[in-house]
Amino acid sequence: MSGLGRASALIGAGTIISRLTGFLRSVVLVSAVGATAEAGNAFAIANQLPNNIYAIISTGLLSAVVVPQIVKAAAHEDGGRAFVSKLFTLGTVALTIVTALSVLGAPWLVQLYAPEFPPEQQALATAFAYWCLPQILFYGLYALVGESLNARRVYGPFTFAPIVNNVVSIAGFVVFIALFGPSPALSSWTPDMVAVLAGTATLGIVVQAGILFAFWRRTGLHVRPDFRWKGVGLGQIGKLAGWTFLMVVAGQLAGIVQSRVISAASSEYPGVLVSQNAWLLFMLPYSIIVLSIGTPYFTQLSEHAGRGDDAAVRSDIVRSIRVLGLFIVVATAALAVAAVPASRIFTDNRTEATQASVVLLCFLLCLIPLAVLFVVQRTFYAYDDTRTPFFFTLLQCVLVVTTALIAQATVPIEYLAAGIALGQSIASIAQVVVATWLLNRRLGGIGVGSWMSSIARFALAAVPAAAVGWGVFLLTGGIDGWTTTDKIFGALGAALIGTVTLVVYVGVLALFRTTELRPAIAIVQRFLPKR
User: Fold this and answer.
1) Residues sharing a CB contact under 8 Å with residue 407, sequence separation 6 or more, in sequence order
2) pTM
3) Could you tell me the pLDDT band of residue 131, with boundaries at 50, 70 and 90?
4) What pLDDT score was predicted for residue 14?
5) For residue 36, what are the CA distances in angstroms to 55, 88, 348?
6) Of 59, 126, 238, 497, which residue is most buried, by most CB within 10 angstroms?
């Protein structure tokens, strides 16, 4: 358990720094292109394209299949060298082909994701896309190398590399502002401006991937190009990845529908970039808490599943969800009551912050369920089952598309982004319910009553904590107070409200002698410097 704690602390520390620098990157980007301006939404669409491919790689094939397979390959006579060499060769070839085809199809991709953009805005988005789409290759290499490091319990580089990416991007965006000024009008963009902004974003991804190769020797594997893709289990990966590929395709199709709907939002109301920044805020606690604690558990869970130790797997599930729940419940409460000042970080004025906070609140409805899904879904993966996750993810995708189309037909344009976010949450909650039921049936029980009662107790403790946090927001002036005057005060206000909420939450848990509090404190202590 101490090994899991150290790994969680390492991943969590890197994730915190990465997210904070990522926040600063987004703040500088908003200053460069505007939160709701046409150029900002054009860049958001273009830079979203390679990220969608990265989502396919990182949360699809690699997380679902490669980590368990590399863990198993370690038992081979060569320690997995042949398997990893063939895997890397195949992966690099596939990534190169996909990247080339994507660059060639840039105009079509922009039209696919943002059909409601006027011609001038589509042209700018296409220009950005030509610079951004090469990121696919380097995102893929980063994910491939990083997940291989994780499978060998080398967690640090994969977590800390994005920090360098953020630093490179921040420097480039600052140079852009210095050269061309903030928020240029749509008609004033030149090829040089496009190259500096989008080229900077791509350079950051190149550096991020390159850093991981410097740590490859820690895996103990010697990889060489190997085009003989038979004989070491790649067929098993192909079989498992088939369902994963279909699952990700379904998710991308649902995402395209959402993007097409939200592209109709005018520059006066939340659009693509505002939604992306709200999702960035939503992902902050998810990344810090769920990924830092859940990733080491997934490696251990894969080992237990590989040995057929179902009892140990059930224990891993209960323990990980209960620990995740303690942290994620207070994170949800704190971010909810600090939604306006937190949204002010990525907007240009109070009105935009208030509008963006509604989008964030709609996303937050599914934060706790997604933490549970992380454990449940990856348990299926640990048993080499990618077929079942496809079906409960397909349900989620159908609901995402349905709710997006309902929002398009019924929700006023000023709340369109919020309507899509609400639909996303409803779909995710339904997905978690079905996935949990299926896993519970498969393993003959996964302690649902135990961890659900824990989450309920955490939620009750969060109620007074959130009330006090909301009181702090009101005492600082509320929407018209100092926490919404500018981006810096928004960050300070959100930190203040979040800290007060956390302190009250921990106090309530301690008052009722909550058993999960002690292991949670032990995890936090690993982030603190030793005496």
Assistant:
1) 261, 416, 419, 420, 422, 423
2) 0.77
3) very high
4) 66
5) 25, 41, 9
6) 497
Which has the higher per-residue pLDDT, 452 or 232?
452
Average pLDDT over residues 194-201: 94
C-alpha 149, offset from chain centre: 19
Using a CB cutoff of 8 Å and minimum separation of 24, what contacts does 300-306 make? 300/4, 301/378, 301/379, 301/382, 302/67, 302/68, 302/71, 302/381, 302/382, 303/71, 304/382, 305/68, 305/379, 305/382, 305/383, 306/68, 306/71, 306/72, 306/382
* Ranges of H-type helices in 286-415: 292-306, 310-337, 339-344, 350-364, 367-382, 387-410
Helix extents (H) in 133-271: 135-151, 156-180, 191-213, 234-262
How far from chain centre, in Å, is Cα 177?
A: 28
Torsion of CA 462, 463, 468, 469, to 10 degrees: 60
Tokens 């930190």 belong to residue = 495
Helix (H) or strand (E) holding 119: helix 119-132
Residue 527 has pLDDT above 70, yes or no: no
Structure tokens belonging to residue 70: 């590399």
Residue pLDDT, tens place only, 425-442: 999 999 999 999 999 998
User: Does residue 371 contact residue 433 with C-beta atoms inside 8 Å?
Assistant: no
